[in-house]
Design brief:
Blueprint: H1 2-5, H2 13-17, H3 23-40, H4 49-56, H5 59-84, H6 86-112, H7 117-137, H8 141-172, H9 188-201, H10 208-221, H11 228-257, H12 261-266, H13 275-293, H14 296-313
Length: 316
């Protein structure tokens, strides 16, 4: 309503985006939108609702939340904050990069300490969204394209991990990792799918997560806005997060599938993944591999809009 009444009244987005607003007014609007989208994305310290929600919700709800709803927060930051309020975004972007780097490391470390399997994946989502924050704050074509690709990539990967975590918990009737173990022997199909999506989440080359995070790395390194030393420090922090990611993901795989705890006790009750579960998993896995092999399939849809946003608002 503030934007509507600040000049000639209109709700047309293109008209509003082409207007110039006082910097102080942009900062006020930007801060309000940022708080709203920071809860949705989420951005630390406004992320605390997400792990509890994932930990208590059914895995179908977790799939919708991780695959679609969280990504709307990132879309809002790009579409509203970046395009509508460019001057304020330029002022806030260094702080966003700092918060994004802290989020990658903090959420990765916190994920490692979670006993609840769905909470561990939830903190993994929070960590991966840090790359999106850094990409959209890098003010470079490559970084923003990487942020958009990370939104799409993690939408597939996060939804698949919650789906497989839910199917695993349904079979074992357990949700805490330290009580699990050994189901890789009676459930080889589930083990294969879970391992494949975990590899995608830790940015294995050839999968969409690798391309997205690589573009974010290149975007911050080539950004014309920041000095060399801050860029090196941010890159170092992102690298630490990427090292921590396989630690908590591979640890999760070890606790669920390796060993003999559950296999020795009730392995005769376990049923491996059926046709419907395989169909869902493969349907999600194919675009992950497709984007990883040929990322231009997605980038070609966003590159023109990204260039328009950055050229018309940040470098004019």
């Amino acid at each position: 309503m503030g934007l509507y009444g600040s000049n000639e009244p209109t709700f047309n987005f293109e008209t509003s985006a082409n207007r110039s607003y006082p910097v102080a007014l942009e900062i006020i609007f930007y801060f309000g939108f940022l708080i709203a989208y920071a809860v949705k994305l989420p951005i630390i310290p406004l992320h605390t609702w997400l792990p509890d929600t994932h930990g208590e919700a059914h895995y179908s709800t977790c799939m919708l939340l991780a695959g679609i709803l969280l990504k709307m927060g990132a879309y809002g930051l790009i579409r509203i904050n970046m395009e509508l309020l460019p001057h304020a975004h330029s002022l806030f972007s260094p702080w966003l990069i700092l918060v994004g780097t802290m989020q990658i490391i903090y959420a990765a470390l916190t994920s490692l300490g979670q006993r609840n399997i769905k909470k561990r994946i939830a903190y993994s989502s929070v960590s991966h969204m840090g790359f999106t924050i850094i990409g959209l704050a890098s003010l470079s074509d490559t970084g923003l394209n990487g942020a958009i690709l990370q939104i799409i990539s993690h939408g597939f990967i996060g939804a698949a991990l919650f789906f497989l975590a839910g199917t695993s918990c349904d079979r074992m009737r357990l949700i805490y990792l330290d009580e699990m173990g050994g189901i890789g022997i009676p459930l080889p199909k589930l083990f294969t799918m879970f391992s494949s999506f975990s590899m995608a989440s830790l940015a294995l080359p050839g999968m969409s997560g690798f391309v997205a995070e690589l573009l974010v790395f290149l975007g911050i390194i080539t950004s014309p806005k920041y000095l060399l030393m801050p860029k090196l420090l941010i890159t170092f922090g992102m690298a630490i997060g990427m090292i921590l990611t396989p630690i908590y993901l591979l640890s999760m795989l070890r606790q669920i599938f390796y060993g003999y705890k559950q296999f020795d006790s009730i392995n005769s009750l376990f049923l491996d993944s059926g046709p419907r579960e395989l169909f869902v998993s493969i349907s999600i896995f194919l675009p992950i591999v497709g984007i990883g092999i040929y990322p231009d399939f997605v980038l070609s849809l966003s590159v023109d809009k990204v260039q328009a946003i950055l050229s018309n608002y940040f470098y004019r």
